[in-house]
Specification:
The complex is a heterodimer of chains A (111) and B (113). Chain A has 111 residues and is mainly β. Chain A contains no helices and eleven strands. The chains are: A mainly beta (111), B mainly beta (113).
Chain lengths: 111, 113
């Protein structure tokens, strides 16, 4: 039982490049979330999903897109990366929508 | 919408001393409350949660928190800390039926021998 896994763990992008972050969970959870963590700002919700095929915007959605084609996977895309998107990205999943289980994070640097 | 304020950004403490991390929230409805811990270079791990019932909640690793509705607070305490408690701690709140968490900015606890 791996819980929540994230791929990749580290990535360096140049401004304007695109990439996709993959989150996978093996707990059969309905709810999945993408957050970004920046120093002194806690975690801010980017997008979330309340079930397969659904997505919704969080607090800071601009510049990101998401898809949840399969219940166990939640993808976060950056179409044209900007230095302001340098951050640590965390995925989380939940059975209830409240108690959330987090992945180990992806450290992204945009130069 | 809810918001969370963690009143201390950094808390240095000596080993075996007590520690209290303060958290206040604002919300117009009833809430669920959580404390998460993040060890260096790791994801977040749930310490404890308040959903309903007793206002004193016990969690893992000897931590406890008290929900005070009148003061809209959910302070975290541990009577005797260890070096291994060095980490960042996040308070989080969710409104009933909202399915999302709002996090505070975090409190870094550094335990010294």
């Amino acid at each position: 039982n791996a819980g929540v896994t994230q791929t990749p763990k580290f990535r360096v992008l140049k401004t304007g490049q695109s990439m996709t972050l993959l989150c996978a969970q093996d707990m059969n959870h309905e709810y999945m979330y993408w957050y970004r963590q920046d120093p002194g700002m806690g975690l801010r919700l980017i997008h979330y999903s309340v079930g397969e095929g659904t997505t919704a915007k969080g607090e800071v959605p601009d510049g990101y897109n998401v898809s949840r084609l399969k219940k166990q996977n939640f993808l976060l895309g950056l179409e044209s990366a900007a230095p302001s998107q340098t951050s640590v990205y965390f995925c989380a999943s939940s059975a209830s929508g409240y108690e959330q289980y987090f992945g180990p994070g992806t450290r992204l640097t945009v130069t | 919408a809810q918001s969370v304020t963690q009143l201390d950004s950094q808390v240095p403490v000596f080993e075996e001393a007590p520690v209290e991390l303060r958290c206040n929230y604002s919300s117009s409805v009833s809430v669920y409350l959580f404390w998460y811990v993040q060890y260096p270079n790791q994801g977040l791990q749930l310490l404890l949660k308040y959903l309903s019932g007793s206002t004193l909640v016990k969690g893992i690793n000897g931590f406890e928190a008290e929900f005070n509705k009148s003061q809209t607070s959910f302070h975290l305490r541990k009577p005797s800390v260890h070096i291994s408690d060095t980490a960042e701690y996040f308070c989080a709140v969710s409104d009933f039926n909202d399915y999302k968490l709002s996090f505070g900015a975090g409190t870094t606890v550094t335990v010294r021998a």
